[in-house]
Amino acid sequence: MCHGVTRNSTDSNKRAATEPEIVQDEAPVGEEAETQGASDKKERVLHTRVPAVLERELKRFAENLRVPVSNLVRAILEDAVEAADAATESVEGRLTKAAQQIGIGREKLKKRVMPDPLVDVYAFQAVTLAQPATCAKCHKDLRSGERAHLGLTDAPPKTPAERLFVCGTCLPHG
Ligand SMILES: [Zn+2]
Asked: Measured in angstroms, how far is the CA atom of residue 141 from the centroid of ligand 1?
């Protein structure tokens, strides 16, 4: 069974011919999921047309978050469907709103798409960097000699890239 996303805006139908198509295929996701059996885990590849402006916005947003566009689209859709369930509103209406509010829901989506890099940290230790690093939260460059906070985890980092440093701004405050 195929699920389609329909649009209710008439003027976007007129633009359909010139709209680029985002094809978000991640290999045979559907088939792979199928062999696992669990019906709620079943994943299907969905093709849809989106206005060029939305495509640009999605791509830019995904680049900012450093996640694949497909992950972002999936998170937006899941979010819209969940919200629709809660509000007994039509899914289609929610999707239209979600597309319009993409900027507004940015932080919420970001949390959803990106797992918290600090989730396994049990303590932060103030350090002075001897080598340049990057804040694990905001990706700000941290210079050698700068004060930062090292996130301590039960599983020690296997490579320098796995070390978790955060800047003063991103350090959780109690
Ligand atoms: Zn930071």
From this structure: 9
